[in-house]
Amino acid sequence: MEHQEYQELLVLYSLDALDAAGTRDLEEHLNTCAECRDELIELRDTGALLAHAATPVEPRPEVRDRILASIQREPPATSPAAKVIEMKPRAQRNIWTIGLRVAATIAFVAMLVGIIVLWRRDTRMRQELAQLSRQFNTQQHELVRDRDVLGRQRDALALLNSPSAKKMELAGTQTAQSARGTFIYDPKTGRAILMAEGLPATPTDQAYELWFIPKGHSPMAGRIFTVDASGHAMLPEHMPPEAMESAVIAITLEPKKGSAVPTGATYLSSPSS
Amino acid sequence: MQAEPSQISDNDLLHAVAGGDELALAACYDRYRLILFGLILRILHDREEAEDVLQEVFLQVWRRAADFDEARGRAFTWLVTIARSRALDRLRSAGSRTRLAEEVAKAPQEEVGDAALDALKSETGAIVRQALAELPDEQQKTLFLAYFEGLTQTEIAARLGDPLGTVKTRMRSGLSKLRELLGQSRDLV
After folding, report:
1. Which residues pair with A221 in a beta bridge?
2. A154 inside 8 A of chain B by CB
3. Which of A78, A129, A147, A238 is most solvent-facing, going by the fewest CB within 10 Å?
4. How far is B99 from chain A (nearest CA, A)?
5. Model confidence at B169, in pLDDT bands (50, 70, 90)?
6. Of B39, B1, B59, B65, which is closest to residue A47 (Cα–Cα)?
7. Does B107 touch chain A if contact means CB atoms closer than 8 Å?
8. Yes or no, beta carbons of A50 and B178 under 8 Å apart
């Protein structure tokens, strides 16, 4: 079997879904191929994320006691000196993104060259040029749109991992008792994200609108959004500086284009302090 | 941001466990009990058995923490892998796999995307769940059958009536998307 074929099997192997014969072959190959071993580490780290698909559940408190009692009966069988291995930062393998960027850059440079050549030639050619430009723009837009969802999730993770990030819990009001939300923001950058759950679907001519209500100020309009079929929404926000100190965050139902001041019922709100 | 004030990294925690530090094991339990118990319960669908397995898992963590090698993957991966393997072993030894699988198939789907309030208990979890929810149904189903039921490629193909190659492609596409997500956030839990 070729190296390429083994790589194909790695995905299955990383989830223990490869049959016995394939497993034997692949394990032999892994003994001799460092590249596949690295790939396997990445795949396993990724596969482990699937654990998050299970809803977190609290075990009974007795379990903790039982575990701590059972380990006291047996000392760890391992050597007392824990080995410390210096962590090697694995190269960020983002070939796809890099590839797209390279492709976009090449396309852009090609456009520039095209522009210069055409410019020199003839004004009649300009129409053609305009068309090429439009095509290029369309392609760029598609590229951006495809990356948008992923980008949103990445930004959210970056925000969550930021040490200065702060969190506000939003509770459902009488209107939407099962709704919940979390608003996370970074006071340093003003970047924020709203995650909401359990919001009812909006009528076609209406949408939810987010409001920042700083103490002693009138409400400041934030983003307008709708929820998906299961009542979720996740949207990036920007926290206005006025709202940074102490503000209530609220979500109301408004006409689709949004309102300048809240007019509809409140669905979610952070506690007023 | 963390629910607990402790800023000790997972790696250091496991090294401390390897050195025989009981408090480190307790901290490790406190940090991961929710997700690990959720995972085990999702595989076994039985609270009592799941609690048994959770205990086995932490006993194994205690005994084998020195085997953890951060050059070979994240601490989270190491813990989750132990929990999943133990739970799947239990599922198989119970010999009740078929019955359970049938029950699961009959039970109302409570896959990713259900507006469980618990989902917001962990923001990272919520984001991963969102990413999973955005996968096409077949990819999600294929990954879940492998992950939570421990089915092989052949078994999944039989269950879903798909060709073997399709199963492989779906797993690859699904994992690639998750991997992109993981790309810039190696520290997330």
Report:
1. A211
2. yes
3. A238
4. 20
5. very high
6. B39
7. no
8. yes
Q: How confident is the model at residue B95 (pLDDT cuts 50, 70, 90)?
A: low
Q: Which of B37, B118, B133 sits opposite A59 (nearest CB)?
A: B37
Contact yes or no for A60 and B51 at CB 8 A: yes
In chain B, residues 152-171 whose CB comes closer than 8 Å to chain A:
152-154, 156, 167-168, 171
Residues of A in contact with B136 (CB under 8 A): none
A153 touches B: beta carbon within 8 Å: yes
Q: CB distance from B3 to chain A under 8 Å?
A: no
Tokens describing residue A35: 């590249």
Give the count of beta carbons closer than 10 Å to the beta carbon of residue B73: 19
* Predicted confidence (pLDDT) per residue in B62-74, tens digit: 999 999 999 999 9
A42 and B CB contact within 8 Å: yes
Q: B116 falls in which pLDDT band (50, 70, 90)?
A: very low
Q: Does B151 touch chain A (CB under 8 A)?
A: yes
Kindly give, in sequence order, each residue whose CB lies less than 8 Å from that of residue A27, ignoring residues fewer than 6 positions away.
none
Confidence of residue B131 (pLDDT cuts 50, 70, 90): confident
ipTM: 0.84
- Walking along chain A (273 residues) 10 residues at a time, the average pLDDT comes out as 83 93 92 92 92 91 94 66 41 63 79 72 68 76 66 73 83 90 87 89 92 88 88 85 85 92 92 73
Which pTM was predicted? 0.58
